Amino acid sequence: MNKPIRIALTKGRLEKDTIGLFEKLGFDCTAVHEKGRRLILPIADGNIEVVLAKANDVITYVEHGVCDMGVVGKDTIMEMHGKFFELVDLGFGKCKFALATKKGYDFYSGYGIKTIATKYPDVSRNFFEKKGMDTEIIKIEGSVELAPLLELADGIVDIVETGTTLKENGLEVIEDVAPVSARLIVNTVSLKLRRNEIDSLITLIKENL
User: For residue 40, what is the domain's CATH number?
Assistant: First the structure.
């Protein structure tokens, strides 16, 4: 018997949505619902294994070939890049990257260098380079909304879903940067060596989206 296809899933909401999709495909996902503290779990009669990981690690595991496939947000792909194939937009986990400032702040006036706080320095840098704008990017690990309130930054680039957190902190979106949703990624070598298995799984997924 072939070893199972190993799929890394981003823990949390994307994991739940992906398992929901797998159940729609008719896969038995009992092991995931009863996982306890286990992180590698068999589904679909054991011919697929899911590995539960943080988003950045999903990319690392797929890139290095310890997982054949992965489900991860486009936000992580845009920030981390990496060598793999991005094959399917799964359509769930929808949100967007957006540029936000304090309400009423005229971000685009004047010629000075703008300071941007973000958890996503690469995405932010690319966005402003395309605009031909000079910016100083400050990486923030926690609540990025604090940066304009503390006058550390002129604006922030962050993931926005409903915009409630921004509103509650007196911030507003002034421009959308890029749409985000969950993507199916595949290791480059796995796609060559296990083409038939991966192709038939992808076909099944696409038919059920």
Answer: 3.40.190.10
DSSP 161: S
Range of the domain at 155: 95-180
Two structure tokens written together for 88:
């399917």
The model carries a pTM of 0.91
Q: Are residues 26 and 40 in the same domain?
A: yes
Question: Domain check: are 84 and 14 in the same one?
Answer: yes
185 with 134, same domain: the answer is: no
Whole-number Å distance between alpha carbons of 44 and 142: 38
Chain CA centroid to CA 4, Å: 25
Are 62 and 127 in the same domain?
A: no
Per-residue pLDDT of the chain (209 residues; tens, 9 = 90+): 579 999 999 999 999 999 999 999 999 999 999 999 999 999 999 999 999 999 999 999 999 999 999 999 999 999 998 999 999 999 999 999 999 999 999 999 988 999 999 999 999 999 999 999 999 999 999 999 999 999 999 999 999 999 999 999 999 999 999 999 999 999 999 999 999 999 999 999 999 98
Residues 89, 100, single domain; the answer is: no
198: helix, coil or strand?
helix
Quote the strand ranges of the chain, DSSP E.
5-10, 40-43, 48-53, 69-73, 85-89, 95-102, 114-118, 135-139, 155-160, 171-180, 182-186
Question: How many domains are there within the chain?
Answer: 2
